[in-house]
Amino acid sequence: MRKLLWLVLAAALFTFGMAQMPLEVWKYDPETGQYISLPATNNLARAFSSDPASGSCNRRQWTVEFTTEVQVAQWLEWSLNATKWTWFVRKPGDYYANSVIGTIASNGDVVVSFAGFDDLQYTGSSSVNPFIETYYAVTSGALPGTNDWIRASNLNQMTATIRDSAALHAGKSFYLWNRIKVVECNSASTYRDTGYVYLTLQNQKPWIDEQGEFVPNLEEYVQ
After folding, report:
1. DSSP element (H, E) containing 170
2. Which of 152, 95, 93, 146 shows the shortest CA–CA distance to 118?
3. From 12, 45, 53, 74, which residue has the greatest number of CB atoms within 10 Å?
4. Contact indicator for 128, 185 with CB cutoff of 8 Å
5. Which parts of the chain have pLDDT scores under 50?
6. Which of 72, 87, 117 lies at the terminal end of a domain, its last residue?
7. What are φ and ψ of residue 22, in 5° steps?
8. pLDDT digit string (tens) for 147-156?
């Protein structure tokens, strides 16, 4: 019986020592100059206390260790002023259009990859040449040069890593250009292609789910 009591007491002490206590969090509001209490289910920042300690004896000096740990998730902000080019072409020629302007900001490496890009394809029933040769270029602002153009289908085999930097934290701008080669044997009608760009965060925390929210068992990640 005594042994059982000791086991129960030890288990209780172990549980007490490992307890994670959710804490109320306040966030500074620059518009009001005040700190505002956040709800326990807020999606900005949450905090826990853990590792309780105590002592009792006649020791002259005690050493109590305190640790503050902040785990910061990777975030991403991006914007595009357009996601579609629509051309109206009267005569064959090699043309490129002014750019789509984008911005991207993050606090970690971001990998950019592509899928579904190809030459524009005839949407009607038949065409002498059912494809329009299509290219894309990305610049930091200048007009694209001859070597900047990438054939649309080649994008699908490419990846680019935007490295973590102070400039990326502040936000970087880019310019996406579109080029087409319409030839005499492109029959009259509409040609179209839809591609996809994937932005993949490279340093995300395991306590962020696939939708970018806190996991429901966040307390289990307190170490």
Report:
1. helix 166-170
2. 152
3. 74
4. yes
5. 1, 3-17
6. 72
7. -65, 140
8. 999 999 999 9
